[in-house]
TrEMBL record:
Cellular component GO terms, alphabetical: early endosome; late endosome; lysosomal membrane; membrane raft; neuron projection; trans-Golgi network
Gene that encodes the chain: cln3
Keywords assigned: Endosome, Glycoprotein, Lipoprotein, Lysosome, Membrane, Methylation, Phosphoprotein, Prenylation, Transmembrane, Transmembrane helix, Transport
Transmembrane residue ranges: 30-48, 117-135, 141-162, 174-192, 204-226, 351-371, 377-401
Region (Disordered) location: 1-20, 250-270
One Pfam family in the UniProt entry: CLN3
Topological relation to the membrane, as annotated: Multi-pass membrane protein
Family statement: Belongs to the battenin family.
PANTHER family assigned to the protein according to its UniProt record, in alphabetical order: BATTENIN
Protein name as it appears in the record: Battenin
This protein's record includes keyword Ribonucleoprotein: no
GO biological-process terms attached to the record: amino acid transport; endocytosis; establishment of localization in cell; lysosome organization; membrane organization; negative regulation of apoptotic process; regulation of intracellular pH; regulation of protein metabolic process
The keyword Phosphoprotein is assigned to this record: yes
Compartments (UniProt record): Late endosome; Lysosome membrane
């Protein structure tokens, strides 16, 4: 009797252990989803430059068409500007990379709920893989640009979809998503640079990176433990009908109390009646207090990165212009990674303060470019690292507080709609960077 009771006392893993395991799997899954979703966006810019430069060397007569693709990491030694300018601002390529994402984020939140999450993920994976293939095998300018556009579509649709997806899980997965997106910048830059530095061609390097879309598939379909309420393969209306039937059966069985006993993370994201267009507009109006600071942060951030960073050149520094630029970009990505991973340690509610501090950074560096009063690149390194910290903190805290302060019924749409903030700021900064670049390069 004692032996049998002992056996019954340990029938399997403790429920609390299962809960911790599920929570860890979901956090890790969202970390990899963030990494994979932003990876192609980070890598595609420099990869497209390499491919296009090769095409330019093979067809010198097309030099006018290729001026857009001047190497952003090096200088143009033939110009007479004291800033060692490239012929065209790096903002030109930035716009080609961000505009498709912006269009998707402006329009998709109103219709994307009609597409199940499983279908969305498969589409994003296909777009990312196709972007790598197009750019690696590109034989013309339009193929390379099309590859960049596909990467942008994958990243934009993926971001708003995965942010919406977080409402079906415990809130801590937002920290995993934010950290993963921050890691994409560092991992993408280091992996691409490292493989090409080892002697691999850009084409082979991009083909190796086809593993990244595969990792996204594994992260979503294997690592995540989705709740039953997630519309995985059925459209929302069908899912709602199924849930209503289950609710009626539960009432007949007298099992309402079981629903009340569930942990909060198991009932998040339950399906409800679809939001009408007027309700969505009201939600967007309420989101402006989050979206506007985020937009301003990213406007100032990318105005620095694409309009000023290449002009912050110190000829007497021990690093070349190309090396200075690379370190600016690397330190920026490190700052983003650290702050996007900080949600578990600290939360910042004053989003406007982050926006104003980022604008102050942009003003200081704009004046530094004009009057050249900074003594060394070391000072710029510190400011750029700080810039990345502010940008990453603004991103994760914006979506955390949207998740906390938005009604349950509105949360999924709100997370998707608010994702337009960073892309809108980036696009506006790209447009403003053109005249600024032209002005300084004409001096």
């Amino acid at each position: 009797m004692e032996e049998s009771s002992s056996v019954r006392a340990h029938p399997g893993p403790h429920p609390e252990d299962n809960g911790r395991s599920t929570q860890w799997r979901n956090w890790t899954g969202f970390w990899f989803l963030g990494l994979c979703n932003n990876f192609a966006y980070v890598v595609m810019l420099s990869a497209a430059h390499d491919i296009l430069k090769k095409q330019e060397s093979e067809n010198a007569t097309a030099s006018v068409s290729f001026t857009l693709n001047a190497d952003v990491h090096g200088g143009n030694k033939t110009n007479s500007s004291r800033y060692d300018c490239n012929p065209v601002s790096t903002a030109a390529v930035l716009l080609a990379d961000i505009l498709p994402t912006l269009v998707i984020k402006l329009s998709a939140p109103f219709v994307v709920h009609k597409v199940p999450y499983g279908i969305r993920v498969l589409f994003c994976v296909a777009m990312a893989a196709l972007s790598f293939l197009l750019v690696s095998f590109s034989s013309s300018v339009w193929m390379s640009i099309l590859g960049v556009i596909f990467a942008s579509i994958s990243s934009g649709l993926g971001e708003l979809s995965f942010l919406s997806l977080t409402v079906y899980f415990s809130r801590d997965v937002l920290g995993g998503w934010g950290s993963g997106t921050g890691g994409a910048g560092v991992a993408g830059a280091l992996l691409y640079s490292g493989l090409t530095q080892m002697g691999l061609s850009p084409r082979v390097t991009l083909l190796i990176m086809l593993l990244v879309p595969l990792a996204m598939l594994i992260s979503y379909f294997v690592l995540l433990v989705p709740p039953d309420s997630l519309p995985q393969w059925k459209i929302r209306e069908m899912q709602n009908a199924a849930v209503d039937a289950e609710d009626r059966q539960r009432l007949m069985d007298g099992s309402e109390e079981e629903e009340q006993d569930k942990p909060p993370h198991e009932v998040r994201g339950q399906t409800t009646e679809p939001l009408c267009f007027t309700e969505k507009l009201q939600i967007i109006r309420g989101l402006l207090r989050f979206v506007l600071p985020l937009c301003l942060v990213y406007y100032a951030e990318y105005f620095i990165n694409q309009g000023l960073m290449e002009l912050l050149y110190f000829p007497s520094f021990f690093l070349s212009h190309a090396e200075q630029y690379r370190w600016y970009q690397t330190l920026y990505q490190v700052g983003v990674l650290v702050s996007r991973s900080s949600l578990c340690c600290m939360k910042i509610r004053k989003l406007w303060a982050l926006a104003l501090l980022q604008v102050l950074n942009a003003v200081i560096l704009l004046l530094a470019v004009r009057f050249q009063f900074l003594p060394s690149a070391w000072v710029v390194f510190i400011i750029i690292l700080y810039e990345g910290l502010l940008g990453g903190a603004a991103y994760v805290n914006t979506f955390y507080f949207i998740s906390v302060e938005t009604e349950d019924r509105h949360r999924e749409f709100a997370m998707a709609a608010a994702s337009v903030g960073d892309s809108l700021g980036i696009a506006l900064s790209g447009l403003c960077a053109f005249p600024v670049h032209s002005y300084f390069c004409s001096l």
